[in-house]
TrEMBL record:
PANTHER family: SPHINGOSINE KINASE, SPHINGOSINE KINASE RELATED PROTEIN
Species of origin: Microlunatus flavus
Biological classification of the source: Bacteria, Bacillati, Actinomycetota, Actinomycetes, Propionibacteriales
Cofactor(s) required, per the database record: Mg(2+)
Protein name, as recorded: Diacylglycerol kinase family enzyme
The entry's keywords: ATP-binding, Kinase, Lipid biosynthesis, Lipid metabolism, Nucleotide-binding, Phospholipid biosynthesis, Phospholipid metabolism, Transferase
Length: 308
């Protein structure tokens, strides 16, 4: 069977040499000329993905950073068209969580192989608006402030280090009242960060929610509410060691539907990109909604959860 492919590529992330490598790899695999769709600043991938769907291709290869990868995943969820990833960004969050090679040749080899899995996506509505989707994480608070404050020029030169510089600037943020409802169970905290996670891994080999898997039919809510320096230290130790610390003022709940309600409008991010501002974020897991070229999972550790 001839594999009909579309490539949704961010030309500012995927250079000419790597683009040529993708074209050569597809030709060597016997694929016909792909439908090559480049993103733009005005449209980082949404209409291009829809064009690929309308064309009836068998496989859509997303080549770019986290923003492009998210929009392609959102557009393919529920279509039964397979997705593959050529990671070309700084964070490459979904690729890391699925253990997809971060080099073009390795990622393309996986894309054109026969290993595949179905993963969940999360449907998100902000203030009752139109639904969107993400595959890794959505967050408000310090999380969104860090993403919003990242200097794109620094990302190009120092990579993930740009996030740490942005984090240092954002640490002065005060906790804000937040109400989190997970599967009908309500929690109130004064939080510095509130994240809905479909996966758990960040850049730098750090895991925010160790053991969270993108195909377990659940979403996870991570809330950090430190009020003194010792809480910050314990929360950081938890992040590095992947183990809860006594009195670290971090809680993690699991469920299928979550509502985050803020007292005032605040920025929120989806898979590493700030998308806007809102007061009420509602997320619901859509199990197995995305076919993706990735190796089967092999991890068996379970997330450390608080009682819901």
């Amino acid at each position: 069977m001839t594999l009909r492919c579309a490539v949704v590529a961010n030309p500012t992330k995927l250079g000419d040499a790597d683009a040529a490598l993708v074209r050569e790899g597809l030709a060597a695999a016997g694929c016909p000329e792909p439908l090559w769709l480049e993103t733009s600043a005005d449209d980082p991938g949404r209409s291009m993905t829809q064009q690929a769907v309308d064309a009836g291709v068998d496989l859509v290869i997303a080549a770019g950073g986290d923003g492009t990868i998210r929009l392609v995943a959102a557009g393919l969820a529920g279509t039964d068209i397979a997705m593959a990833i050529i990671p070309a960004g700084t964070g490459n969050l979904l690729a890391r969580n699925l253990e997809i090679p971060l080099d073009v040749a390795g990622a393309l080899s996986l894309a054109l192989g026969d290993e595949e899995r179905r993963i969940d996506t999360v449907v998100l509505r902000v203030d009752g608006g139109e639904p969107d989707r993400f595959a890794v994480m959505a967050g408000t608070g310090l999380d969104a402030m860090i993403m919003e404050g990242v200097d794109e020029r620094l990302k190009k030169f120092i990579g993930p280090g740009a996030y740490f510089l942005s984090a240092a600037k954002a640490l002065g943020r005060l906790p804000v009242p937040v109400q989190v409802t997970v599967d009908g169970k309500r929690h109130r905290r004064k939080a510095i960060i509130t994240v809905i996670g479909n996966c758990g891994e960040l850049t730098g080999d750090l895991e925010l929610i160790p053991g969270a898997q993108p195909d377990d039919g659940q979403l996870y809510v991570y809330v950090a509410f430190p009020s003194r320096p010792t809480h910050w230290i314990k929360a950081f130790i938890r992040l590095v060691t992947r183990r809860p610390q006594k009195d670290d003022h971090v809680e993690v709940w699991a469920g299928r539907k979550v509502e985050i309600r803020l007292q005032a409008e605040d920025a929120y991010e989806l898979d590493g990109d700030v998308e806007g501002e809102g007061t009420v974020l509602t997320g619901e897991v859509d199990p197995g909604s995305l076919r993706i070229r990735a190796r089967p999972p092999h991890r068996v550790d379970q997330p450390a959860l608080n009682a819901s």
